[in-house]
Recover the amino acids of this structure.
């Protein structure tokens, strides 16, 4: 599996607050973002499939 780097923009204080809570649980920002993106993609695929099946 390969990885790529991307810059993101966050609201003021969000990164610091995330690190405050996530750090206690050993969660890294990149890991969390990756998981959330995968969840979003899966949900969108399910919606697309539902819409396709609804038309049939």
């Amino acid at each position: 599996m390969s990885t790529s780097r991307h810059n993101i923009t966050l609201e003021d204080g969000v990164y610091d607050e995330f690190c405050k809570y996530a750090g206690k649980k050993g969660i890294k920002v990149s890991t969390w973002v990756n998981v959330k993106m995968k969840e979003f993609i899966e949900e969108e695929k399910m919606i697309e499939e539902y819409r396709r099946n609804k038309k049939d």
